[in-house]
Design brief:
Blueprint (H helix, E strand, L loop, with lengths): L8 E2 L2 E5 L3 E3 L1 H4 L6 H10 L3 H15 L3 E12 L6 E12 L2 H11 L8 H8 L38 H7 L5 E5 L9 H5 L5 E4 L2 E4 L9 H5 L5 E5 L1 H5 L3
Parallel strand pairs: 1-4, 2-4
Antiparallel strand pairs: 2-3, 4-5, 6-9, 7-8
Bound molecules: iron/sulfur cluster (2 copies).
Amino acid sequence: MLDECDYVVNVPKFKTHGLTFLTGAIKNLFGLVSGTYKMELHKNHFDADGFSKMLVDVYIETRPALTIVDGVTALEGNGPGTSGTPRHMGLLLAGPDCVAIDAVLAFAMGADPLDVLTTRYAADKGLGIADMGSIDILGERLENIVDRSFKLPQTSMVTKIPRPVQAIIRRLIHYYPLVNHKNCTGCETCVKICPQKAMSKKDGRIVINYYLCISCFCCQETCPCAAIDIKKNWFTKMIGL
Ligand code: SF4
Ligand code: SF4
């Protein structure tokens, strides 16, 4: 189907994301992957590292001619679903380089652009510019768009650790979903979307089979009631992330 298009125009919203830190230009292209195959990709690339590399592969295949980001009202905190909080940023970004656009979005969040793994891996492959000093920006000055009080997703706290150490301890850090039964209406949206079939309804309550769960946070992303909380294992708590 993409082969039949002359150009792809990519129109993401500016949101945080539990697994990939940022839902921006590159992550948005995952929407081009068709239904059930999307779930397969989630299953096969379940950690932030593998999932981000897969997203970069999707970017290589699609390479939009133009990306326009709606960042007028962004989503901060534990986005991209209803667990995030809308925040007025007043930003509209457009350009042909998804790597540069995502770098600017991360900068606007007060984060290091290379902490967003899709940006880092795409830049490593020479697919775009992630160095803020080398990006040509027209319009608003960069220092005017950064918002240091922007709330980053809880799962991104691992980026506070020096990068060489991150690679070692990432395996010990674990975030997982927990159903907040006070908010849950039992709609079963999460049950239908879970790529691992790890969720089910038992005696009227949603339960998660943690032997199957891969912490992809699709359930959190799609829950219409902010009823999926993100919890951390003892090690993650112990090191204060
Ligand atoms: S999607 Fe949310 S509200 Fe619906 S059943 Fe799942 S946890 Fe409950
Ligand atoms: S329970 Fe949620 S986080 Fe776990 S695999 Fe299913 S959708 Fe992903």
